[in-house]
Write a structure and sequence with these properties.
One of its GO terms (molecular function) is transferase activity. 20% of the residues lie in helices and 27% in strands. The protein has eight helices and 28 strands. Helix 3 links the parallel strand 4 and strand 5. It is elongated and about 65 Å long.
């Protein structure tokens, strides 16, 4: 049943956000296009969509919309049919879903947040939607501490009973994981051309109208890639095979190094580190749980932990970087020490020994 179901379901991916929490990486690159485990992040999601049997994809874009179309084109290189709808003004999650209506082909659409890294079984979500004759199905996730999220309690049949904002005393450990199945007529009923939140307006109204809103609950891998910490961990989890991606099957391990990169003798690459095209890693350098973009130079003896280093940046010999974001083309001089969420903007140059945190300088 699933294959046919998936083939007759549109996949809609909302990729309009600006990714402000990941600046300066997102100054020029939309967040879903950031290199993640060797590919633009969105390719991992598209590979999961294709593996599930969906063929028609609509991207709802806004910020730097042209970047998506330049890379993916009509989708034929990826075995998909991809179309684009641009939001000229941000419309919120509900408005963004309504905005793609004219491109939908089927009676059902599966809607994805373009910055969530997930491992849920998409066919199982579709199956439960159809079997329950649902109008809308939400992928719900069980988490250890639901206080930071909106909670979604369900009854014994899996039917959603409420949508609750973040609260100190949540009545359930089920949270909205940001993947939905909508019947087409529900999308048609969303008002057009204004900002609408699916969580605050659309879903509560569906419950008021007593429509069939169900939750598909699991504990699959899930991570919102919006912060530097989550971005680094998500990339690392893909490389190590903790987060699933059809693109990496059979290629998981401690590091993912592009064939064109050069790694010097005695360099250590650990924790799901990614090294991009043409990068050069000096002898004795130590890279742990980090994402190194294309063309980066890391000189001998440098230590880079839980960092993202933008394309073409240079890290000097024996520099120590922990929990940092280094912008494109920046230069961190030898023996510098950057820690705790430091962000260096593109093209900035810090001289040798120019910045330290230690008290033993």
């Amino acid at each position: 049943m699933s294959d046919n179901l998936a083939a007759n379901t549109d996949a809609v991916i909302l990729v309009g956000g600006k990714g402000t929490r990941l600046r300066p990486l997102t100054n020029t690159i939309p967040k879903p296009m950031l290199p993640t485990a060797g590919y633009p992040f969105l390719r991992h999601l598209l590979a999961r969509i294709k593996a599930a049997g969906m063929n028609h994809v609509v991207l709802g874009t806004s910020f730097r919309a042209e970047v998506f179309e330049e890379y993916f084109g009509d989708g034929s290189d990826f075995g998909l049919e991809i179309e684009y709808v641009v939001e000229n003004e941000p419309l919120g999650t509900g408005g963004g879903i309504r905005n793609v209506l004219s491109r939908l082909r089927y009676d059902r659409a599966m809607i994805f947040n373009g910055d969530v890294l997930g491992g849920t079984d998409l066919n199982a979500v579709l199956d439960s939607h159809v079997k329950r004759k649902a109008d809308v199905t939400l992928h719900l996730l069980r988490v250890a501490d639901p206080r930071a999220f909106g909670c979604v309690p369900t009854d014994d049949d899996g039917r959603v009973s409420a949508f609750l904002e973040k609260t100190e005393d949540p009545p359930t450990d089920q949270i909205n994981a940001g993947t939905y199945v909508f019947n087409r007529d529900i999308i048609e009923a969303i008002p057009q051309g204004r900002v609408i939140s699916v969580e605050r307006e659309v879903f509560p109204e569906l419950l008021e109208r007593n429509l069939r809103v169900f939750g598909h609950v699991d504990q699959a891998y899930w991570r919102d890639m919006g912060t530097p910490d989550d971005f680094v961990r998500g990339s690392s989890d893909l490389v190590r095979g903790i987060a699933p991606s059809p693109l990496l099957e059979g290629h998981t391990g401690e590091a993912f190094v592009d064939d064109s990169a050069v790694v010097g003798g005695g360099a250590l690459l650990l924790g799901g580190t990614v090294v991009g095209r043409g990068a050069e890693i000096g002898a004795g350098a130590r890279l742990d749980t980090s994402v190194i973009f294309d063309g980066v130079q890391i000189e001998a003896g440098a230590t880079v932990e839980r960092c993202v280093v933008g394309a073409g940046a240079r890290i000097g010999a024996r520099a120590v970087l922990t929990d940092c974001i280094i912008g494109e083309g920046a230069v961190i001089g030898a023996r510098c020490e950057l820690r705790h969420g430091a962000r260096v903007w593109p093209g900035v140059q810090i001289p040798d020994g120019g910045l330290r945190f230690s008290s033993d300088v």
